[in-house]
Write a structure and sequence with these properties.
- The protein is an alpha+beta fold and 212 residues long.
- Helices cover 55% and strands 12% of the residues.
- A 4-stranded mixed β-sheet has the order 2-1-3-4.
- Strand 3 and strand 4 (193-198) form a beta hairpin.
- It comes from Corythaeola cristata (Great blue turaco).
Length: 212
């Protein structure tokens, strides 16, 4: 990373709509702010379990608020997150472990596809409300992101490999080492010190902290 560029790591899971919002905003600002943005696919389920966190919608009043909040943010940031009450159940009933391993595999093999692939997973899950836990759907997402069927097939085989499983586990543990308890977790490294920002609604504070 160039002179004086601040390393900013974004730990995310495609199950999280707020992670999608944070991802898109940071993608837009990465050339405006002097940052070296690094995408860190991690597994939210693992973080929730380890920290004793609960999905926000488990609290009915918070769930009600979240519906409005995500709609407002989607409109404000022009990110096509579509959310309705049924989504909470839908999301709780699906694991993104396979999808996050698939994304981890691309990060390990062809990181230039990490951004478009992650985006397509969010679009499929949060815009089109499709199941992303099935292998054929993961392949469809990869095709949408511009990957050949040979590469996609290879990624699918990789998701059950110890190398990919361990990498995802290590990234998830690293997020927790920085103090993460949910997603998105944004870590800015300033003068050798990590600064954690939780959520997609603290990005102006991140900017202020890095002198932007």
């Amino acid at each position: 990373s160039g002179m004086g560029r601040t390393l900013v790591e974004l730990f995310y899971d495609v199950v999280s709509p707020y992670s999608w919002l944070g991802f898109e905003v940071l993608c837009r600002y990465r050339h405006i702010w002097n940052i070296d943005l690094r995408f860190r696919p991690a597994f939210l389920g693992g973080i929730m379990q380890a920290t004793g966190n609960k999905p926000p919608a488990m609290l009915p009043k918070r769930g009600e608020y979240m519906l409005k909040d995500i709609k407002r943010m989607a409109e404000y940031y022009q990110v096509p997150v579509r959310i309705s009450e049924g989504d909470f159940q839908r999301v709780l009933g699906k694991s993104t472990l396979g999808a996050m391993r698939f994304i981890t595999a691309i990060d390990m093999t062809q990181p230039q596809y990490l951004e478009p692939l992650s985006r397509e997973f969010w679009i499929r899950f949060w815009s089109q409300h499709e199941d992303i836990s099935q292998p054929e759907n993961m392949l469809a997402v990869a095709r949408q992101a511009g990957l050949s069927s040979e590469v996609s097939q290879k990624l699918l085989e990789m998701i059950s490999s110890p190398a990919v499983k361990n990498r995802l586990k290590e990234t998830t543990e690293e997020a927790m080492k920085y103090g993460a308890f949910g997603m998105p977790a944004v870590v800015a490294h300033i003068n050798g010190e990590p600064h954690l920002f939780f959520g997609s609604d603290r990005l102006e504070l991140l900017g202020s902290t890095i002198g932007e």
